[in-house]
Specification:
Number of domains: 2
CATH topology of the largest domain: Jelly Rolls
Strand order of the largest sheet: 1-2-9-4-7-10-11
Helix content: 40-55%
Structural class: alpha+beta
CATH architecture of the largest domain: Sandwich
Oligomer: single chain
Distance between the termini: 66 Å
Largest sheet: 7 strands, antiparallel
Shape: globular
Length: 278
């Protein structure tokens, strides 16, 4: 049986980072033409039959187990390709939602192949249960559900398109893996650039586009995070020892860098996080 739900929006839900605006399952789709797009973020996947999406001048097939992630106000059209096309979907919005969706990994509208379709069928029904609950915390529960749903979604989809940013992130993977292993060693930009066969200048451009920072700043963040782990798990080591082990020879420079990143000194960090014993 077709099921849809459109919750009332109150002050609590509209102030949340993410909230539900509609949900449906076992829904029989027709021809949907949206020259001005749709006003919310939307995820739709096929559970029976096949549909077709027109997006950015291209046609995408949507057989069973394929879905579309649509950004707000992006023109698109979708319609059945088979006698009956059945989908499940939800749409959502929220405070600062654009940054949240982008951070999770959905950088633009696109088409995806979904793994574990039955798992997401259950997710949608759980979402319906939460959305229709009379619990006083239902808005909070639904917000939590949507966040978890998007996390599971990005972990279980294979993009059938590649955005520029996705390609750039993939290209940087060998460097990120290298830094994770060799952060304690002296590292020069040319070495990193050689890993992906680009110039040092182009590598800096890639890092700026993907992480909005330079490779050296990324490396310093990594070293500081590794140092924080050591401070809490290896209390017998001095600040100077830890600094050296994460690749920073000068204790004074390490302390200045740590304070710049953490807004507190290494000793203040230890006092704040490490248990104190009489």
């Amino acid at each position: 049986m077709q099921t849809t739900y459109f919750p009332l929006q109150d002050m609590t839900s509209s102030s949340l980072p993410i909230y539900l605006s509609s949900l449906g399952y076992d829904y029989i789709e027709g021809h949907m033409h949206r020259p001005d797009g749709f006003g919310r973020y939307q995820w739709v996947h096929t559970t029976n039959g096949e549909g077709e999406l027109s997006l950015h001048g291209r046609l995408y097939s949507l057989p069973v187990g394929h879905g579309m992630f649509l950004y707000p106000n992006v023109p698109h059209t979708y319609y059945p390709k088979s006698a009956q096309w059945t989908t499940e979907w939800l749409s959502f919005d929220g405070k600062d939602i654009a940054q949240l969706v982008d951070a999770i990994g959905f950088h633009s509208s696109g088409v995806y192949q979904l793994e574990h379709l039955n798992q997401f069928k259950m997710h949608l029904r759980e979402g319906y249960r939460l959305a229709t609950s009379t619990n006083q915390y239902s808005s909070l529960d639904m917000s939590s559900f949507l966040y978890s749903f998007l996390i599971e979604l990005i972990k279980n989809v294979k993009p059938l398109h590649k955005t520029s940013r996705s390609n750039q992130y993939d290209k940087l993977q060998p460097i990120l893996l290298y830094l994770e292993v060799h952060y304690s060693q002296p590292i020069v930009l040319e070495t990193l650039a050689d890993l992906i066969h680009v110039s040092p200048q182009y590598l800096c451009t890639l890092f700026k586009k993907v992480f909005n920072t330079r490779p050296s700043v990324y490396l310093n963040h990594l070293r500081i995070n590794k140092a924080k782990e050591m401070m809490l798990t290896q209390p017998h080591k001095s600040i100077a020892q830890i600094a050296k082990e994460v690749g920073i020879e000068s204790p004074s420079y390490f302390s200045a860098l740590f304070k710049k990143h953490e807004k507190r000194t290494p000793n203040d960090f230890i006092s704040l996080h490490r248990p104190q014993y009489d």
